[in-house]
Amino acid sequence: MATASTKRRGSKRRGGQKGAPRPPQVGTGAGRDARAFNSDADDGGDSPGVSEQFWTLASGATLFVAAVLRLYALALKPMHHDEGVNGFFLTNLLREGRYVYDPTNYHGPTLYYFTLPTAALFGLNEVAVRLVPAVFGIATVALVLCLRRHLGTVGALAGAALVAVSPGAVYQSRYFIHESMFVFFALGIVVASVWYYDTGRARYLMLAAASAALMFATKETAIITAVVLLLAWGVAWSYMKLAGAFGWAESRRAEASGGEDGATHARIPLDDPARLVILFGSAFIIFLVVNLVLYSSFFKNPKGIADALAALKVWTSTGVSEFHAKPWHNYLKWLGQEEALLFLLAVCGAAAALYRARNRFAVFAGAWAFGTLAAYSLVPYKTPWLMLNFTVPMALIGGYAIEQLDAWASRAGYKREAAVGAVLGAALLVATVQAVILNFREYDNDRYPYVYSHTRRDVFQLLEEINRAAERAGTGTDTRIAVAAPEYWPLPWYLNHYKNVGFHGRAGAYTDAIVVGSAKEPEATQLRTALGPAYRRTGAVYPLRPGVDLVLYVRADTPRR
Questions:
Q1: Coil, strand or helix at 281
Q2: Which of 25, 276, 404, 477 is most deeply buried (CB count within 10 A of its CB)?
Q3: Residue 527 near residue 505 (C-beta atoms within 8 A)
């Protein structure tokens, strides 16, 4: 879909005057210029003096930076225990062609089915499985760029750049978990919906329905996102109506430097009930079929459909339990530590959208960002990966703040490049430094909010020692290994190439060549007593994650070197 705009400052006129905006030309490529979701006065248009060449180069550079940060050294960070659990489901799907949705503790099936091709091609390794969330993270940056007509050229570039270098967005995109895909599908609903509003083309409505279906098939928290999106749309629509009724928008039209009065869009056939029924009926069928197919494991597990509905009850009870419970203001604290300038830009952008009352999409983006923050803050259950649900829309409204700064500097006669460069440059520089430190140096340091009960890099030493012991035993991947520690994830992922591994979770009189146990008392003493002189402990204590330390025993008759 072409992103070029035909708007120029000299053409901004009231309807009926020379230079007034043309109706949208569907399918005319660069000449098409529709203003979805916008009010009668919309300042989301092109920034004066920004060329198409600059847009292309800046977009490419933004996507390149996003790709480097997300794809470089994907195997550097050890697998989180949640990644290990997800890897277990993927392993069964790849090796046995079997996936059964479990509503009690786990999320939807999309992650496993989308990762299946890369795992089949490249094997069960960290790069292969993390590649999919990373690609969705890059694609999310691309989707922000698709909102150029609604955020403005500078606003879309700024918003995309803020997502590209966000420490949290990068960190979660390098995880084999559901969040990166989930937020992509949520943003996909928004982009496809405004494209449908822009053009009236049915394919965009179907695309929005497919995005909604995939979002619901990814995580049970989709219900929160769906409700917030609907409420944000209602807030934006109502606010702009009130602004028009009370003259807020009218009184500020003279201030605007971008956008057009009387912005047009393709008509949705409200006057054709039969066509509306067919359109939205088809969209609902797409939504239903996608969920039925995925949750039933392509109709191999019909029970999965009922389990998908039961999961809403399970998630509700989990959300209000003491499990991962934290104070209501915890997300604000985490934002202050890792996303402070993004949060500040989002506040400024939302305030500007409300004050100027000229861009309905900007009001919507602000309501989406802060509505999601409020929703997740009210739920006791809090984890840092959930922050991606509001940091991405914060980047949208933060980009709008930069667009407004650019417009203000232009009106005031200041050098726009200096004003925008200083503010946006500072935000991007700070975020990039934080992203690099977090993702490539302190990725397992739980003093950083995004590092949440993460596996320590010491696990690699434990795995090396296990491999050496198996080699000395002369049994290779046939080596018998007993895991006696009650907490052991993600070891099932790392040991999946061994054929004889038992995850017992308790001390016992084992006869296996290698035994992995807990260093915590009384489990450590119980295991040492049960194993007796037939085993010797090798190596030191191996930290697995905060509060979980492991020890390694090998049979005494195993050669030392």
A1: helix
A2: 404
A3: no
296-316 pLDDT, tens digit each: 999 999 998 888 887 776 666
pLDDT in tens, 38-97: 433 345 445 666 789 999 999 999 999 999 999 999 999 999 999 999 999 999 999 999
Q: Rounded distance, CA 226 to CA 219, Å?
A: 12
Residues 6 or more apart whose CB falls under 8 angstroms from that of 257 comprise 9, 43, 48, 407, 408, 410, 411
The 10 Å CB-count burial string (b at 16+, else e) for 87-112 is bbbbbebbeeeebebebeebbbbbbb
Rg of the chain on CA atoms, in Å: 27
- Got the DSSP string for 485-548? -S--TTHHHHTTT-SEEEE--S-----SSEEEEE-STTHHHHHHHHHGGGEEEEEEEEEEETTE
Q: Percentage helix, strand, coil, to 5, in the chain? A: 60, 5, 35
pLDDT, mean of residues 242-259: 57
Nearest to 199 by CA among 141, 149, 240: 149
Task: Round to whole Å and give the CA distance between 129 and 88.
Answer: 12
Tell me how far apart the alpha carbons of residues 527 and 510 are, in angstroms, rounded to a whole number. 9
Question: Nearest 10 degrees: CA dihedral of 397, 400, 404, 405?
Answer: 80
Residues near 261 by beta carbon (within 8 Å), at least 6 away in sequence: 12, 13, 14, 15, 40, 41, 253
Helical H segments across 97-221, by residue range: 110-122, 126-145, 148-151, 153-165, 167-173, 179-199, 202-216
**d(Cα 311, Cα 455) in Å, to the nearest integer?**
27
The total of other beta-carbon atoms located within 10 Å of residue 355's CB is 11
- CA–centroid distance for 96 within its chain: 29
Phi, psi dihedral angles at 47 (to 5 degrees): -80, 135
pLDDT tier at 275, thresholds 50, 70, 90: confident
List the structure tokens of 43. 């300042």
User: What whole-number distance in Å separates Cα of residue 106 and Cα of residue 515?
Assistant: 29
Give percent of the chain with pLDDT exceeding 70. Answer: 85
Look at the chain and count its residues: 561
